[in-house]
Amino acid sequence: MNLFFKKAVSPWILPALLCLGVLTFFVLWPLLSLFYHSVVDIKTGAFSLAGFQAFLDNPRYVEAFFNTLRLGITATLGCMLLGAPLAYVVTRFDFPGKSIVALLPLATIVLPDIVVSQAWLMLLGNNGLARRALEFIGIELPSFYGWFGMTYTLILNDYTYAYIGMLAALKAIDGTIEEAATNLGASGLRRTFTVTLPVLAPALLINAMVVFTLAVDNFSIPMILGGSVDVLSSLTYTTFLSEMGSDPTMQSVLAVLSVLLVGLVLFIQKTIVERKTYHMQQGRAPKPIRAKGFPAGLLTFVVLLFVALSLIPAVIVLIGAFTKASGPVMQYGTFTLENMDRALRQAPGSIFNSLSLASIATLIGTCFATIVSYLIVKKRMWIVSILDYVVMLPLAISGTVLGIALIQTYNSGMIILTGTWAIMAAAYFVRKVPFSIRSASASLYSIPDSIEEASINLGVPPIKSFFKVILPIMKPAILGAAILMWVTSLSEISATIVLYFGGMETMPIEMYRQIDSGYLARASAYGVILMTVILIPVYLSIRFLKLDLFSSRNP
User: Fold this and answer.
1) Among the residues of 244-287, which ranges form H helices?
2) Kindly report the CA angle at 230 between 66 and 234, in degrees rounded to 5?
3) How far is 66 from 356, CA to CA, in rounded Å?
4) Which letter does DSSP use for residue 324 in this model?
5) Phi/psi at 40 (nearest 5 deg)?
């Protein structure tokens, strides 16, 4: 009884309750509101499944659902087929140029989706530079609008997530199990299929599900490149626009189906992984084999090709920003400062909005993530168990769905947030905080409990011990989480496109407007500004703070 009483009056109960309250306010309640609007007749207030029946009766809606599945599966297969072999080559072989692979996370994860979409559109779109060059020599490419453009861009944009995740998994394998298989007479190929792949199976599945979730939740790429192909993310947004101010049933139904789809996939992944996980003693990773001669040259070429593909979007947007244009027609080979001048004169408000919203979300999100990660890793309380589940719910919610849910919840009543900067900052906070929690948690697992216990035994109160003992040790992980949250918030568009209002346009919104109007040169200028604002702090943090910003992305 005394032990239970001590746990019940833990000084960490109140912070845990406050954190759970924040998540209830911005995640649980909006989700419940979304589900409520999907099954209630707005006119009578009675329970109704008319919205789901309308979904099933409308071929466009059904087709969008299956298109989403197809897009997610295709992108996942493509990303795994690129990322996993690349990770295997990098971990198992030494060859010239191997260190260049470090550019991959920087080039693909930090670049906003909208910049990547625009760059490939400028290369392979109807008037694209590469398309015209290929047509000149007689090679005809399919239209870049539709399946070709979406899947191509998604795969090259997201394969790095598969690469980073598999890189971590391959480095964690105990090399002695593969050596044992070799000593028993197994060939290299047989060893790979009977030992290595079964051990890697959980990691393969986890990373596949991460990529699938990113693909089906993506807004920018389907919206810009989808053409006549509808998927749930783009159709939910267009339905939201058509139902604005009227019956929100169909937007709610589409949003709920999107959440259920991702939630079901994550549940299946969790169930399978728990059954297939292999436990190994910590050992040394297999020693890389030094490649020589032709194999070394081939591996170097492949790695350089991957890096080049990853850097193409940044290079193309940079060229476009200084290229003369007549409306939508780019005059490649020319040089002008007009695009940058126009963007800098018109963009100050958008730059300020992006920086202020990202800074507010990062400040609050980093403090929140630090406390929550400490509670989840170090404290065993019933409320922390609940918090652990709730805090990962945003991973199953796309930005568009979150924006719609927040609007439906706080558009009327006692608390009205719609049409304020606060709702936009809240969306950024909810979207990015799970990644910050993962990053902040990484350092906590290596901190012995005895350090904090010694401080408490010396008479320092528990919460004060956290600030004086634990927080200084966590500082590098916290800084890394803060910078990652800040730069990814700057590029957020899926929630912003639903929540922004006049005077609160952000840099991604300005880019989307220019691309939608066909002004790719102007959009490139905005893209260069956005990339500069994002990459400078990333470079400074890596160069001077020696932070590993990409560890939080490892599944």
Assistant:
1) 249-276
2) 115
3) 39
4) E
5) -125, 135
Mean pLDDT for the stretch of residues 440-456: 77
481 close to 366: Cβ distance less than 8 angstroms: yes
- 391: tokens are 């805090």
For the chain, give the number of residues.
555
C-alpha distances (whole Å) from 532 to each of 158, 343, 378, 478, 507 are 21, 13, 38, 23, 12
Measured CA to CA, the distance from residue 138 to residue 47 in angstroms comes to 60
Residue 94: DSSP 8-state: E
Cβ proximity of 94 and 302 under 8 Å: no
Q: Terminus-to-terminus CA distance in the chain, angstroms?
A: 40
Angle between the 471-490 and 348-378 helix axes, to the nearest 10 degrees? 140
- Residue 306 CB burial class (10 angstroms; 0-12, 13-18, ≥19): buried
Whole-prediction pTM: 0.84
Residues 269-281 have pLDDT tens digits of 777 766 655 544 4
* Side chain identity at residue 134, one-letter code: L
Contact between 455 and 465 under an 8 Å Cβ cutoff? The reply is: yes
| Distance from C-alpha of 293 to C-alpha of 289, rounded to nearest angstrom | 13
Q: Tell me which H or E stretch contains 329.
A: strand 329-331
Phi, psi at residue 280, to the nearest 5°?
Answer: -125, 150
Which long-range contacts link 305-308 to residues 24+ away (Cβ below 8 Å)?
306/82, 306/86, 306/101, 306/104, 307/100, 307/101, 307/103, 307/104, 307/107
Nearest to 347 by CA among 115, 113, 535, 525: 525
* Confidence at residue 434, expressed as pLDDT on a 0 to 100 scale: 86
CA atoms 143, 146, 147, 153: torsion sign = positive
pLDDT 10s digits, 388-426: 888 888 888 888 999 999 999 999 888 899 999 999 999
* Least confident interval from 104-113, 203-212, 375-384: 104-113
β pairing state of 324-326 and 329-331: antiparallel
Cα separation, 114 vs 95, in Å, equals 34
Mean pLDDT of 320-335: 85
> Residue 364 class from Cβ within 10 Å (0-12 exposed, 13-18 middle, 19+ buried)?
middle
At residue 44, does pLDDT exceed 50? Answer: yes
